Please model this.
Amino acid sequence: MNHASTAAHVELAGELLRLVETRVVDPLEILLESDDQVRPIRERLRTEAEVWAAQLLGPDDALAVRTSARLIAAAFPGDGPFDPPEAWWRSAFGQAVARRVGHPGAVAVSYATAAAMLGITRQGVHDLVKRAKLVRHPDGGVTTESVRARLNQPKEQRAPSGHHPR
Model:
């Protein structure tokens, strides 16, 4: 895993701070009816978001996976498996999770989800499956592991699929 750039770290840390404030701290402030009681939490979160970003982007895979799991559990609680919308995969946090974990709740993903995770079109995913650059899952879709492996290949090793929207 390559060490991330400073810009990627700053973007991820800011996104994590906004996510945790919106999903965790803001509801706590509403329940407590007091900004005074949550202000120290908001101040601490600035530091924690920097640490989480470093853990998600750093060299320790096990730590990145644990950090991903903690953040997803806190920010996206629910009784069912974690199944974010396709747009989430394009976020800095979604991309960090995709690179380090793949899809935390699925062994296989649809072509549409794989496309979102990879930042390409569904047709691009079809082409990559045809060229054996992604592994088709027997039950449909593609394996999460093959998507994660593709994301972690150095860019110069990836043959362009010709269907990048960027």
The mean pLDDT is 90. Helices lie at 6-32, 35-57, 61-75, 92-100, 111-118, 122-130, 144-151.
